[in-house]
Give the backbone structure.
Amino acid sequence: MTQVLAGAEPFAFEGNDIGVLVSHGFTGTPQSMRHYGEQLHRRFGFTVVGPRLPGHGTSPDDMETTGYLDWAREIEQQLKALAARKRKVFITGLSMGGTLTLNMAARFPELVHGIAPIAAAAGPLKREFAGVLALDPAPRRIPGIGSDIKAPGVQELAYAEVPVACMREIAALIAQTGALMGGITCPALVIHGREDHVVPASNALHIVNTLASSDIRLLWLENSYHVATLDNDKDLIAERVGRFFAELAAG
């Protein structure tokens, strides 16, 4: 049995009849979302579930055996389980977790009542990312992308190396999700830092301009980098998303 790193465990906080599914990002762990999930539960009373995606929070070798279908399947299963026991369900996620948030909203509109993608990868890739995918032969690993955080002394629990095979997988997930996004009609609060060194801020504008929803809101973060849920704006995010979901739940 693969050992899970300390701090990378999934979390769940039982609350009211509103469910919130929270997804971490590529090579990251639930550690990056725990404070966010705790705040949504404590301040708004939501039932919050934060799963650990397959291959994450263990080792790069383990991650290398997984792909986007495994990651999406985990979120799909958690979504359906939450929807089976809660009156309304919302999804929010960071980075690839934001991509999965959009993917679920497109594929299961009857289950998802609102979304809040944060620094979501859903459009243009960084030139450096695309460059690695074009290498032939490609390296097996490249240096990690974790801890893009402005706040001093804060660390994300993420892999120090990224399996290039998994980079191909997330590229496929982004492409698939991008093709589905035009069918998303649920309310959306799109959140992105203006200075994000991992996912270009242009992704937020691409999402806003592509969704079919009649209720699309955009929150620019002025004091955070990519891992915004651990950064200077982490409490602002929890407050704005919590209020957004509470407003939708009351409607």
